[in-house]
Specification:
The protein has 167 residues and is α+β, with helices and mostly antiparallel strands. It contains three helices and seven strands, in the order H-E-E-E-E-E-E-E-H-H. The protein has a single domain, classed as Peptide deformylase (Peptide Deformylase). The structure holds nickel (II) ion.
Length: 167
């Protein structure tokens, strides 16, 4: 296993739209293991392949407190969304930034697991928010892009300043 480099906002590569995985292979599973290790090491509760500069529809997630409930979503699709919720979100690609985002409260998602088998999951609460956040990454969208343009430009200059200081 290996720890992968996580792209940092506003890296343009975070805006790449991921392609569906055509066949789940040993290489896909190796990538999933590396993504999981990277997520746990960060530490984070979700990671999309986009964030490690692989533009395939793969998400790893673990919202458990025990960090032993890894969930994998390959080619995820939302079949149904209900209700509305607003949660403060963070992202491994935007460290130190937490902002409220409005999302569906309940979703039904369909995806493939690491063996390439389809499954359907009903999700609510943090899990639903996290799935929607990670699926946005696959579409090339970072959560801060829900903020007003003014807030986004302030955030960009703040982050660029911080990146210059730590270089
Ligand atoms: Ni994120």
């Amino acid at each position: 296993m290996a720890i992968l480099k996580i792209l940092q906002y506003p890296d343009e590569r975070l805006h790449t739209v991921a392609k569906p995985v055509s066949t789940v292979t040993a290489a896909t599973r190796k990538l999933i293991n590396d993504m999981a290790e990277t997520m746990y090491a960060a530490p984070g509760i979700g990671l999309a392949a986009t964030q490690v500069d692989v533009h395939e529809e793969i998400i790893v997630m673990d919202i458990s407190e025990t960090h032993d409930q890894l969930q994998i979503f390959i080619n995820p699709k939302i079949l149904e969304r209900n209700g509305e919720t607003e949660c403060e979100e963070g992202c491994l690609s935007v460290p130190g930034v937490y902002e409220k985002v409005r999302r569906a409260e309940h979703i039904i998602v369909q995806a493939l697991n690491e063996r390439g088998e389809p499954f359907t999951l009903e999700a609510g609460g943090l899990l639903a928010v996290c799935i929607q956040h990670e699926m946005d990454h696959l579409k090339g969208k970072v959560f801060v892009e829900y903020l007003s343009l003014l807030k986004q430009s302030r955030l960009k200059s703040k982050i660029k300043k911080r990146q210059r200081e730590t270089m």
